[in-house]
Every structure is written in structure tokens, then in C-alpha cells.
Design brief:
Helix content of chain B: over 70%
Oligomer: heterodimer
Mean pLDDT of chain B: 88
Distance between the termini of chain A: 49 Å
Largest sheet of chain A: none
Largest interface: A-B, 93 and 71 residues
Structural class of chain B: mainly alpha
Helix content of chain A: over 70%
Strand content of chain B: under 5%
Order of helices and strands of chain A: HHHHHHHHHHHHH
Low-confidence stretches of chain A: none
Amino acid sequence: MEGSTRKSAYWRGLLVGLPFMLVILPFGMLFGVVATEAGLNLWATMSFSALVIAGAAQFTALSLLTEGAQTWVIVLTALAVNLRMAMYSAALVPHLGQAPLWKRACIAYLTLDQTYAASTAIYETDPGMGLGAKVALFFGIATPVVPLWYMATLGGALIGSGVPDAWALDFALPLTFLAMLGPMLRTLAHVGAALVSIVLSLLLTGLPAGVGLLIAGLAAMAAGAAIETWQKQRT
Amino acid sequence: MSDVQLWIVIVALGIGTYLCRFSFLGLIGSRPMPPVVMKLLRYTAVGIFPGIIAPLILSPAATGGAFDPARGIAALLTLIVALVTRNMLAALFAGAASLYALLWLLG
């Protein structure tokens, strides 16, 4: 019985994960193309996608690398982009914290925006799920997402610099981030943080590559937290 | 960029990102976190993405840093669709379609 609930949870997760392929495929290909155009060889491009599996941070690191930023600035800024993974990790603890260590280690590797968002949404609406089913559901969601990330990167890297300039791929990153940003701007605090980030990053463009962004990002996080605190005190 | 720098970035970012993902699930467990940390973490993405793209939108490298109306308007449309529909794919599609249309019309 337990085995069959796990199996059905896995398949349920897989179905939930399928639509994400529409995001992963173009985004992964884009990374492969842009990285290859920036001069990365196939190994470096694939290692990026296999070790980091976080598109936004990969693009951030790549753009700072091509701007000639200092190594520590690149790592810190791209890691700041990925700090949200720590929040996802914390959010998964109540649901998956009791799983064996090796499973938690695998889950950690597979924790992405999509797997986190889809799994917690289901855990919260379906509180009767057992631990085994929850773990199976998580792996189910990751199944169509993570391998496709590698394959899409590979495809993009092989197309590489064959993409004509008329495709304006230089602007794919800003448009993708804007599209991701829209749904995140839920509260005044989120909007305030975004505005602080924009203003400071533009004011600080004179600093060495990436440093301005790092300062702007940290200030924006503090601003978001401050606005949230201020709003809570008023109510 | 040198090969050494590139590989340091890839490996350090890979390890650092994994540690972020593993942090609570693997090491800290279910002990509660200071609320101020959770509060700051909520604003990481929204604090960094705009800072990355604002300069790219206002002075795109493809036009040598000069503001490009086609790219600027496409960016604005993408944000509006993303805000209204709350749907990333719809926004991305609208943005790409408007960018190509505008580049063709204005180019």
C-alpha cells in the first residue's frame, strides 16, 4: 500500500513538473548559447549548469565574468542571487526534514524555484501526505525539470555562436528577469526593494564591475525588510 | 576572463549554492531561524534582479550603450504583462514578440 501511494505521488509530481519544461528548455538553451558566445568551452558551460543549476545566478556570473569583475565580487553577487535557496531549504524542513540524510542531500541538489514552489504548494493543500509520498512527489517534480536543464544547455552550447545577431539574444536576459520579477512584486516591501536596487545600481555604475550591484542588492534586501517591519508596526 | 578565474567561479558558486540549498534541510534542521534572517531572505531575488537588468535595459551593449527605443519599450511591455497576468511565460512571450516587432518597425 505504502509503495503504491509513493508511486502515485511520484507520477503526480511528474505531471505537475511537466509544464515547467516550457520555461527550462528556452532558458537552458539561452544559457548554452550565451555562455558559448562569451567564449566558454563545452566543459565549462556544462559544468556551470550541472554544479549550479540556477539559471539566474549562472547568467549573473557570466555577465560579470565578461565585464571583467573581480573573482570574489562575481561569486558573492551570484551567491546573493541564490540566497533565496536557503529560504526554500528552510521552507522544506517541516515537510521533508525527517527524511534520511542521503535523500535530503539529493533533495537539496534538486531544490530550484520550480521544484520548491510546486512541492510546497501541494504539501500545504494536502496535509494528509506521508513522508514517503512527499519525498516521491518532490523527485517526481524534479524529473522533467533537472535533466532537461542539462540537455537544453548542451543544445544551446552546440548551436553556440551560430545564432544570428538579428535574434537580439543580448536582450533575452533582461526580458527573462523582468518576466520573473513581475509575479514577485506582491507587496509594497517587494516594490520598494526593487526600486532601491534599480536606483543604487544605476548610481553606482562607476564602481568596479559588480561591486555596485552587490551594494545595491544588499541595500535593497535591507529596505524590503525595513518596509515590512514598518508596515507591521502600523497595523 | 582567465581559465583559472572561470573555474574558480564555477566551483565556488556550485559549492556555495549547494550549501544554501542544504543549509536548513541538512544541517540546521527544524530549529527556528531568527525572524530577521527570514525577512532579509525574502527580498534577495527582488533586490538583485532589478539591479542586474536596469543598466542592461537603459544602455544595452548591442547598441554600444545608447538607449534603444525598441528594447526599452519591449522591456516596459514585458514588465506590464508580468505585473498584470502574474504569468512568467505570458510576459516573456509578449516581450519577445514586441521586441521583434519593434526592431523590425524601428530598425
